[in-house]
Amino acid sequence: MKTYLFFMLLLTCYCWGDDPEVNMSPIEMIEYWGYPAEDITATTEDGYVLHMHRIRHGKGQSDEKNKPVVFMQHGLLCSSTNWIANLPSQSAAFIFADAGFDVWLGNVRGNTYSIDNNHLDTNSKEFWAFSWDEMVKYDLDAMINKTLEVSGQKDLYYIGHSQGTLIMFSKLSIDPYFKNKIRKFFALAPIGTVAHIKGGMEVLAKLLYPEIGFVEAILGDKKFLPNNWLIEILNKAVCENPFIHSMCDNILFLIAGPESKQLNKSRVPVYMGHTPASTSVQNMVHWMQMVHSKKQEMYDYRSEEENQKHYGQSTPPLYDITKVNADTYLYWGDSDWLGDPEDIKMHLLPNLDPSILKANVELKNFNHLDFIWGLRAPQEVYDPILNTILEDLSQSK
């Protein structure tokens, strides 16, 4: 993986010039632009140490207490850097910090910035035995509780992208009290089911699932590290006419969609220097499972006995999103491969309670990654969210 990333760094530096942020940590990236940065850890009930990155206030602003909190949660194969990878005027985290918010950026277990556990060896199979179910069960509790404890707030505004929406939909569906901590839920490129998925994940699912022995032979049973020949297969299957060929050598773009007409091309080295962030093979298998089952369901242990042991039933339980009870705002794109419009129309919209669905915004020519990196996102996504939050705050005074 290090060789692969080094090659990509050489390629992007050759094409666009060396950007110092390519090799920076999230804290360094935030401070590079003149913002205050903190690394705060939250420990889950099962011992995973999650690193969150906090921007207490905007550039040049005073450090006032009791600011409302905006919590941003990244997607699949991503990290907190997603929200700070563009220029400050284009990056969600900086925009909200400058607007007067206490901004927190989460990192789920197993990604680049949350590879630690108080009880398990990072190199052990046990450490990597998780999927997004555990993010629902443990990670959200740990991160949100720590954020509220440190900030002194009783609730927060949650902005999720991709898998960051999937875990929140799922959490709210099984924990009716969690909504007391979520003032509003903004779902960007929302995921419930992936029955109509396109691109690299569809290819992976058809190629590898449900032959898990084959998956483990190819990918192992720990950290998800796509090897060169697998990347090449996906490249040929997905990238017939890539606008930037090097981006088609990156697993994230192969899964989310490489074609975009609104990326800041000068920032591509920064995007690729920080993505993909790691996850577990088991998490990727869970996603492949959902492609096949076409359901929003828990991890399938592929054995009635094992499922019975974990769930008390022979099949994995469903997450019932009709029970989601927090005010929810959907922002989705008509060109999204991962959060496909058909899944939104056939799963999320019919099943979310109309009383909590406060906005349903379809954006033209938005793909999965445009919500975090697209040049239209500040005006068409972040500004409307910001206005909604400011209106909510004014009404609560």
Describe the structure.
- It comes from Strongyloides stercoralis.
- One of its GO terms (cellular component) is lysosomal lumen.
- It is a single chain.
- This protein is an alpha/beta fold.
- The protein has helices at residues 2-16, 26-32, 92-98, 132-151, 163-174, 200-208, 212-219, 228-238, 251-256, 268-274, 281-293, 304-311, 341-351, 370-373, 377-396; strands spanning 38-43, 49-55, 69-73, 102-105, 156-161, 182-188, 328-333, 357-363.
- It has a single domain, classed as Rossmann fold (3-Layer(aba) Sandwich).
- The protein contains 15 helices and 8 strands.
- The chain has an 8-stranded mixed sheet with strand order 1-2-4-3-5-6-7-8, sandwiched between helices.
- α3 (92-98) links the parallel β3 and β4 (102-105).
- The protein is globular and about 55 Å long.
- 49% of the residues are buried.
- Mean pLDDT is 91; it is low at 1-17.
The gist of it:
This protein has 397 residues and is α/β, with parallel strands linked by helices. Helix content is 40%, strand content 12%. The protein has helices at residues 2-16, 26-32, 92-98, 132-151, 163-174, 200-208, 212-219, 228-238, 251-256, 268-274, 281-293, 304-311, 341-351, 370-373, 377-396, and strands at residues 38-43, 49-55, 69-73, 102-105, 156-161, 182-188, 328-333, 357-363.
| Estimated share of beta-strand residues | 5-15%
Indicate how many domains the architecture comprises: 1
Number of strands: 8
Give the C-level CATH assignment: Alpha Beta
H/E series, N to C? HHEEEHEHEHEHHHHHHHEHEHH
